[in-house]
Amino acid sequence: MIRTALAIVFALTATAAAADEQAAWAALRGGGHVALMRHATAPGVGDPATFKLGDCSTQRNLNDAGRAEARAIGERFRAHGVAVAEVRTSQWCRARDTAEEMKLGSVTEDPRLNSFFGDGDRAGGLEASKAAVRDAVRSGSAAVLVTHQVNVTAATGVFPASGEIVVVTVEGDAIQVVGRIAP
Hints:
By secondary structure, the chain is an alpha/beta fold. It has helices at 2-30, 64-79, 93-102, 122-138, 149-156, and strands spanning 34-38, 84-89, 107-109, 142-147, 165-171, 174-181.
């Protein structure tokens, strides 16, 4: 009895997640939406105390699984027929490498997408992230913004897994979540 109930719950959850994901892909195909993405898998949390923005050897970076994950995400964009107008990324190596491995077009660094994990200026980081999303939505085409968990969570309330995409749009000044795409 309990196993049957659990099976039903899991089936309903999987069905809801699949419908949510299909709505997210459709929104991206329609333009005017942003794929706000947490970088692919980079083992660990935060960065070492010796972190330097321009030096990847001092940062937490993608592992082989993370690089493969980023390539697979790019393939999913192509398989779902999403024409990406622009790809912007945080200046952190793991975010930039994710964006480049997806091979969705030229990649532009956008400091507004930089992580503010451990930064005392959480409000400033949040506003910068939201401004980057608003600018991308106003372009009218599908855009991919590769950033960090803290940025995605602050802007949307969603705690994304590595490589997860939160599809958003803007209504007034508010960022609205349209759907999620699992890695």
